[in-house]
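Run log // design_07
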C-alpha cells in the first residue's frame, strides 16, 4: 500500500503502521483513540486523475482504489458495491422550493444500503489479515452488508443484533448464512457483547468506529457523487446520522478529492438526526460533551443512543461550516412518501431522514433555496416494509364491481 503513509490518532496525533488488524490508538483507548488513514497525496494524485477515471471501466468502489487503504493486487469482496445512480430531483426540488437538487440512491447497493461500502472494505481487510470469521454489532444494515459481502468470498459471519431489528434485515442475515445472535437489550448491549466475543475469539472486527478502514469505504459515496456531477459538488450535502461514521466518511471523501485537486471547492454538510434520539445533534448544539440518550425513533438505523463516532461527525459539520438538525418520526414518514411520489425511490426511514432534514432546514430558513443540494438515500425501504406501510397507508378495498370502482375513483378525482 504505497498510497497509504500511516494511521494517525485523531486525539493525540500518534502514528501507527497501517496493518490490516489495526483498531484504535492504544494510548487513547477504544472510545477516543479513533485512527485516521493518512495518504501520500502526491502518490494518489499521479494515479487518480480525471483522464484515468474517464478511461476506467470498473464501475464499483474499486474504481477509486488509489484512494483506498487496500493492497493493489490483493483480494477483494466480490459483490458489486457502489456506482449507485445520482438523479436530478427536479420535481422534488420544486416541491421543496430549491433551485437544484440531486438524489443519490444508495439503497441500490447489493444488500440495499450504503453500509455495503464499508463492509466491502471490511471484508477485503479481513481477507488481507487471513481471517476466517468476521463479526459486528449492528442495528441491521452494517450486519446484513457484512454478511452479504462475507458470503461472496466464503468468510463466516457472527452478528450481534438488538432485539428491535426489522424482519427484512434479519431475513437477509439468515439468507447470507450468518450466525445471528439477537441480544436481549438495545444496540449498546449488543455492541458490548460483540466486543467481548471478538477479542475473546480473535474474530475480525467490523465495528465501524473501531475499525479505521470502514469509513474509508463510506467515503466512496462522495467520490462517486462528485464524479457523476462532473466534479461540481453541490453547495450542501445531506446525510442522516447515527453513529456518525457515514457523514464523517463522506466529508473525508470530499476532503481527499480537494487535496488531490479533482474538485476546487468543498460542500457544507448537513447532518440529520431523529428527534427521539439525537445525542450528536445535542452535543453540537450545546457545544458540550456527548450524553447518552434513549433510542426512541422508528428510524432504527440511526437510533444510536451512544454513538461510537461522534468525533468524526462533529469534525465533518464543523470543518465544513455545516449544520445539524432533528426531525420527528412523522416528518420522516412524510419524507418517505414525498421521495416515493416525486422520484420513484422507496427509502427506509433512516434512509430518507436526510430529505426530511433538508425540508425542515429550508422551512426554518437555515438554508438558501438558491443553493444546490445533494441528498444521499442511505437504505432501501423494502428492508422495513412495516414502516413503509405506516408511511404510505392502505390500498383501496372494493368488491370486483366497475360501478363501485367508478365511484371510489371519482371521489378521489382520478376519473
Ligand atoms: C448506518 C446508517 C445510517 C447512519 O450512518 P452512521 O454511520 O451510523 O451515522 C443512515 N442510514 C442508514 C440506512 C444506515 O444504515
Ligand atoms: Zn491517541
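design_07 sequence
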Amino acid at each position: 500500500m504505497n498510497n497509504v503513509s500511516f494511521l494517525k490518532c485523531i486525539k493525540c496525533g500518534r502514528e501507527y503502521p497501517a496493518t490490516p488488524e489495526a483498531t484504535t490508538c492504544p494510548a487513547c483507548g477504544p472510545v477516543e483513540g479513533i485512527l485516521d488513514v493518512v495518504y501520500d497525496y502526491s502518490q494518489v494524485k499521479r494515479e487518480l486523475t480525471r483522464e484515468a477515471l474517464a478511461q476506467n471501466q470498473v464501475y464499483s468502489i474499486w474504481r477509486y482504489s488509489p484512494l483506498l487503504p487496500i493492497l493493489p493486487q490483493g483480494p477483494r469482496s466480490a459483490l458489486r458495491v457502489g456506482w449507485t445512480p445520482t438523479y436530478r430531483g427536479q420535481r422534488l426540488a420544486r416541491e421543496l422550493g430549491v433551485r437544484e437538487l440531486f438524489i443519490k440512491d444508495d439503497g441500490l447497493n447489493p444488500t440495499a444500503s450504503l453500509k455495503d461500502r464499508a463492509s466491502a472494505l471490511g471484508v477485503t481487510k479481513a481477507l488481507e489479515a487471513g481471517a476466517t470469521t468476521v463479526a459486528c454489532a449492528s442495528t441491521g444494515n452494517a450486519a446484513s452488508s457484512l454478511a452479504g459481502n462475507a458470503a461472496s468470498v466464503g468468510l463466516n459471519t457472527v452478528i450481534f443484533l438488538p432485539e428491535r431489528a426489522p424482519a427484512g434485515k434479519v431475513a437477509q442475515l439468515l439468507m447470507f448464512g450468518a450466525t445471528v445472535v439477537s441480544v436481549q437489550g438495545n444496540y449498546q448491549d449488543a455492541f458490548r457483547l460483540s466486543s467481548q466475543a471478538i477479542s475473546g475469539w480473535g474474530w475480525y472486527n467490523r465495528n465501524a468506529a473501531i475499525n479505521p478502514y470502514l469509513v474509508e469505504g463510506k467515503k466512496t459515496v462522495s467520490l462517486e457523487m462528485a464524479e457523476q456531477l462532473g466534479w461540481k459538488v453541490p453547495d450542501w450535502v445531506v446525510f442522516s446520522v447515527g453513529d456518525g461514521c457515514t457523514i464523517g466518511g463522506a466529508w473525508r471523501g470530499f476532503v481527499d478529492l480537494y487535496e488531490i485537486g479533482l474538485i476546487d471547492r468543498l460542500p457544507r454538510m448537513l447532518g440529520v438526526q431523529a428527534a427521539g434520539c439525537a445525542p450528536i445533534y445535542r452535543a453540537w448544539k450545546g457545544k458540550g460533551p456527548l450524553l447518552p440518550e434513549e433510542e426512541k425513533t422508528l428510524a432504527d438505523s440511526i437510533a444510536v443512543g451512544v454513538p461510537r463516532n461522534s468525533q468524526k461527525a462533529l469534525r465533518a459539520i464543523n470543518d465544513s461550516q455545516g449544520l445539524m438538525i432533528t426531525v420527528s418520526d412523522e416528518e420522516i414518514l412524510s419524507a418517505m412518501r414525498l421521495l416515493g411520489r416525486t422520484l420513484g425511490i422507496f427509502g427506509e426511514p433512516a434512509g430518507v431522514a436526510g430529505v426530511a432534514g433538508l425540508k425542515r432546514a429550508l422551512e426554518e430558513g437555515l438554508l438558501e433555496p438558491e443553493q444546490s443540494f445533494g441528498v444521499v438515500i442511505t437504505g432501501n425501504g423494502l428492508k422495513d416494509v412495516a414502516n413503509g406501510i405506516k408511511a404510505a397507508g392502505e390500498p383501496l378495498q372494493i368488491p370486483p364491481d366497475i360501478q363501485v370502482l367508478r365511484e371510489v375513483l371519482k371521489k378521489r378525482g382520478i376519473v
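The chain has a mean pLDDT of 95.
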